[in-house]
Amino acid sequence: MKNFSLDTEMMIEVNARFIAKGQDEPLTGNQYNVRLFERDFLEDDFLGDSKPDEHGVVHFRFSPAKLHDGFLDDKMPDFFFVLYKNGEVHFQSQVMENVYLDAIELYKKGTGEIIYLGTFLVDA
Description:
Elements: E1 11-20, E2 25-26, E3 32-38, E4 45-50, E5 57-62, E6 79-85, E7 88-92, H1 101-104, E8 106-108, E9 112-122
Parallel strand pairs: 1-9
Antiparallel strand pairs: 1-2, 1-5, 3-4, 3-6, 6-7, 8-9
């Protein structure tokens, strides 16, 4: 990722949106929880969890250090989501391989890099 700031504590924010299939409404409610992972060779990295907001958007904020596998920084991580409904796996996205962060990042002053991974249509 580009170095936009001298602030070493800048965070990465990854966002996605979930829409209820057949209803074209945002997926919302306390029964839903989404977890973000980064696929790794040995063990997938858990990057955070989030409940969808009133627009069906989930927000994950984490340090760029979480994309460090002990050998080198992962400039092209492989992200995937797992959506839980009432604690049970309800949907899992395909692995978004080699997400080129430098190409899709947005910068929000004072926040850091923001990565939008798209809208996912799922059963409610």
